């Protein structure tokens, strides 16, 4: 009886080791047939050739320079006074300043200007405001005329006139150029 049990077990084991994975083994054997790989050769490295920079007489490409010679409308006399002390309203762009009213005190006419930080300033003719070296030229009940000194692309200074009009009640102001 023992022999029968051992014979039965051996028959069962031999059946399990059979063809369950035969198709997989056959696929692996067949997949490599007919493939012949070819690797392209490494490209040849050209030797380094040093470049000698000889354009020292040319202008530097990353340094600001004038695009054309100064024609000097006014002979170059127009330029801001860079040595004077800046006033409070010169740290703001002219477009962000608002005229909110006028005031007359001791026969001097003042304009009331509101800055973006909500501070209120009183300016008179000759005061400076705006980042482009603006100077108050005239003050009327409805606007402040400002003459700015701006630098063009050629490095020349020129005058530009702007005005700040009285802000409407809606809180909007207008800048005339």
Descriptive report:
- It is a single chain.
- The chain has 177 residues and is of the alpha+beta class.
- The chain is 14% helix and 27% strand.
- It contains two helices and eight strands; from the N terminus they run ααββββββββ.
- It has helices at 2-16, 22-31; strands at 98-105, 108-114, 120-123, 128-129, 134-139, 143-151, 157-165, 175-176.
- The strands form two sheets. A five-stranded antiparallel sheet has the order 4-5-6-7-8, with no helix packed on it. The protein has a three-stranded antiparallel sheet with strand order 1-2-3, with no helix packed on it.
- Strand 4 and strand 5 form a beta hairpin.
- The termini are far apart.
- The model has no long low-confidence stretch (mean pLDDT 81).
Average the pLDDT over all residues and give the rounded result: 81
Which sequence of SSEs, written as H and E, runs from N to C?
Answer: HHEEEEEEEE
CATH class of the domain at 88-167: Mainly Beta
Helix percent band:
10-25%
Task: Describe what is shown at a glance.
The chain is of the alpha+beta class and 177 residues long.
What is the strand and helix layout of this fold?
Blueprint: H1 2-16, H2 22-31, E1 98-105, E2 108-114, E3 120-123, E4 128-129, E5 134-139, E6 143-151, E7 157-165, E8 175-176
Antiparallel strand pairs: 1-2, 2-3, 4-5, 5-6, 6-7, 7-8
Describe this protein with a few key phrases:
single chain; 177 residues; alpha+beta; SH3 type barrels; 5-stranded antiparallel beta sheet; 3-stranded antiparallel beta sheet; 2 helices; 14% helix; elongated
